[in-house]
Amino acid sequence: MSEKSDTATLKIDGQTIELPIVTGSEGDRAVDIANLRARTGCVTLDPSFMNTAACYSRITYIDGEKGILRYRGIPIEELVTKVRFVEVAYLLVHGELPNEEQRRNFSALLNRHSLLHEDMRHFFDHFPQGAHPMHILSTMINALAAFYPNVDLKSLDADVELSCARLISIVRTMAAFAYKKSIGEPVVYPRHDLSYCANFLNMMFDSPIQPYQIHHDAVRILNVLFILHADHEQNCSTTAVRTIGSAQVNLYATISAGISALSGPLHGGANQAVIEMLRMIQEDGDVDKFIRMAKDKNNSFRLMGFGHRVYKTYDPRAAIIKRECDAYLKRIKYHDPLLDVARRIEETALTDPYFVDRHLYPNVDFYTGILYRALGIPENMFTVMFALARLPGWIAHWKEMAGAGTKIVRPRQIYIGKTEEETSGVMANREPQLLW
Ligand code: ACO
What we know:
mainly alpha, three-stranded antiparallel sheet, 19 helices
């Protein structure tokens, strides 16, 4: 970040004030209004933070107009071809890619803390049949605070490191256990000889009657998907993490809040919603009808997996996933009719003025579900996969927020409710209640 380089002039109530403009390392500019209320009595109004930078950050850079996404300065296109997810997790959390020794130590730490406390395993028995795995996951992560030392912003660095590694590792075990429970199979424990993604696939699909064959291709695809989901700066769930963390809540509760935010269909839940939509369109057979519905302001239907608050061009993650999806399905000779539907929707939407004018392109979720299906991941686990991948990002933001000495997040509002004058007399005929 460069120093404040310029000022903006604001005229208000006959007074002219200068507001500093700050410039980021990639040239993003912002008017710093932190002292505006103290100087003028005014706050700024920006519902849903359409135009508000809530913090400085060194983690992820996005250029939504050009379709650029970089973690710690490195383009995702390079990361997906040259490193594994665990290295990206290290990069996000620590700020640099690990050298060979750091990578080995980090992997060893993940392995050491991959087992779930046995008492927690019984929790899975008490969720109702059909409970969504995202609800199970957020509950289980919250419960971690009762089993493992509580880590908050005041904890020692070493405890924070250990808890972050434990989270990245153990949540993967929890996710696989939740799946095994849901299909009534015995859980499969993590293995030290397997890499992070291979371990996850093995815990998901190995069974006493049919050992799981780990395929290099599947492991690579999972690495790519996890890397592409690992961080996305100040999205809804990360903002939840930073906001809740600012109240000095423990790390587990903070991450649990991030998982809850992610579960919504307008956010991480969209990957499951896309598949449900594609299936509905496939069964109906009339793609154009659904495109019309998506454009109709009187219809709540939206093209799931389309549009993005920040990207006003093709989401660079979607571009990679689409490519990988085509290649992987061809390699494993798997024909998914939903991919045909997805392609037709994309072709139609990208030439339709409604979508073109609004800059609505496929986002990360549009093709992701098709790849997960090809890997054998059930639909209700899609958003859990997103959560596993996003953990390093949330943790990196939690650490950055803590390190910056962030004050508790507390926006203001413009009150538009009743005035005292408007309610005068409402209480006039009521006697004071001495006993309740
Ligand atoms: N289908 C049809 N129309 C859409 C879509 C869509 N998927 N997305 C946006 N639009 C339209 C809106 O109706 C609006 O039109 P208008 O200007 O005529 O009123 C315009 O495009 C702008 O949309 P907003 O909702 O104002 O954009 P916002 O930035 O608030 O929302 C969001 C972004 C939530 C992603 C939205 O595009 C959407 O609902 N997409 C579908 C859900 C989805 O795929 N979510 C995953 C996002 S990626 C992620 O979180 C990992």
